[in-house]
Amino acid sequence: MSEGRIHDLAVKFFQQTCTPAEKIELAQWIEQSAGDAELQQLLERVWADYEPQAQLTDEVSSRIIGDILGRQDIEAATPRVRPMRKWFGYAAAAVTVVALAGGYTRWKAGQPAKPAVVKVAEKKVPQPGGNKATLTMADGSVVPLDSTLNGAVMAQHNVRIVKTDSGLVTYQQLTAPDARPVYNTLTVPRGGQFSLVLADGSKVWLNAQSSLRYPVSFSEGTRTVDLSGEAYFEVSASSKQPFVVKVNDMELTVLGTSFNVMAYPDETLVNTTLLTGKVVVKHGQTSLPLQKGYQAVLNRNTGKLTSTPVNTSEAVAWKNGRFIFNGATVQEIMRQLGRWYNIEVVYAGEVNEQFYAEIPRFANAAEACRILELTGKVHFRLDGQRVTVYP
């Protein structure tokens, strides 16, 4: 295979445009490579134009590489070789390529392979989620927002509702809003995602198994919406109309801000991550101003509300087409995968490990599990929409 062909395949894979046959062709080259020098040089060139979403610290990157390569001494690698974040980029990408093709024979000279051993029963492999949602109107009628409605226009209380494409619905204020608010609800099922532009211009991205209740139009005073699940907000600034997100027994007050909220009923922690602007998080008698780059965490069991600096790219990875796991347990990981692939997860033993991984959100469930298996810490069996986790 020519170097040009290899380069083109690598670029297509990182951009997630490879066909299954092209993935196999690329993986075969990696498997058959006589040494790692050519592999490293090629992937470095490709990754120069394709940086990973995660802005990871050297320590976290080292752990990822240690998991992937089965090495305990990777943290001792000298910086003069190349920045550790680059190590994460091309190594994780290359391992992903190989995992998608079904395993590999070697990565670095002298390093034993850790073949992916995901067992798949003779049933259809769960596929990634897509743009799915239903719109519940104020009168109780339910509108499925599928591809047949692309370009559809609906009218409600001086507002035009336009489904512009398969993953977006937009509210456009035509005249003065009603004095009394009228509410709609956008509901995204397991295995779905959807976006929404509110009548004030604020944008909302809803993750799987989430819903948002919101006014069709915003009259004077506070703009208030109710969230269940996870959403990323880009709020239109208005000093006269604060924007309030109600989630469980919390309230988030903002003026013009971008932030992510994860508040699933099956999660112990409710996380609010601020990317830009200012947010005030209120729970009971506690009011916590949140700074850019910080995450407010509410522990539902203790009722304690705290804040800590975080890598914001991890919190919004789902919106950008990836899963990023930074020291996550397998239970935390499988809850996210379960919502996205609409799969049932069962455990055949305890896995008490932390995982560091980045997975393309549009890989299928078997591919995602294979990537996790490359750590050597966990194994899976897929049987239709059921995934069994083994130590």
Q: Write down the CATH topology of the largest domain.
A: Jelly Rolls
Give Rg in angstroms: 23 Å
The amount of helix comes to 10-25%
CATH structural architecture of the largest domain: Sandwich
How much is the average pLDDT?
A: 79
Task: Name the overall outline.
Answer: globular
CATH class of the largest domain: Mainly Beta
Number of helices: 8
Distance between the termini: 39 Å
Query: How is the biggest beta sheet arranged?
Result: 19 strands, mixed
Structural class: alpha+beta
Beta fraction:
25-35%
How many domains in all? 3
What is the β-strand count? 25
What are the segments in which pLDDT stays under 50 over at least 5 consecutive residues? Answer: 50-57, 64-117
Domain FecR protein: 185-279
Pfam family, one: FecR
Domain Protein FecR C-terminal: 322-389
Transmembrane segments: 87-107
Relevant terms:
alpha+beta, Jelly Rolls, 19-stranded mixed sheet, Ferrdict_sens_TM, FecR domain-containing protein
Show the helix and strand layout:
Layout lengths: L2 H12 L5 H13 L3 H13 L9 H12 L14 H18 L17 E2 L9 E2 L2 E3 L5 E3 L8 E4 L2 E7 L2 E6 L9 E6 L3 E6 L5 E4 L3 E6 L7 E12 L8 E5 L2 E5 L3 E6 L5 E8 L2 E5 L2 E5 L3 E6 L5 E5 L2 H4 L6 E7 L1 H12 L2 E4 L7 E6 L4 H9 L5 E5 L2 E5 L1
Parallel strand pairs: 1-24, 2-9, 7-9, 12-13, 22-25
Antiparallel strand pairs: 3-4, 3-8, 5-6, 6-7, 8-11, 9-10, 10-12, 11-12, 12-15, 13-14, 14-17, 15-16, 16-19, 17-18, 19-20, 21-23, 24-25
Helix pairs in contact: 1-2, 2-5, 3-5, 4-5
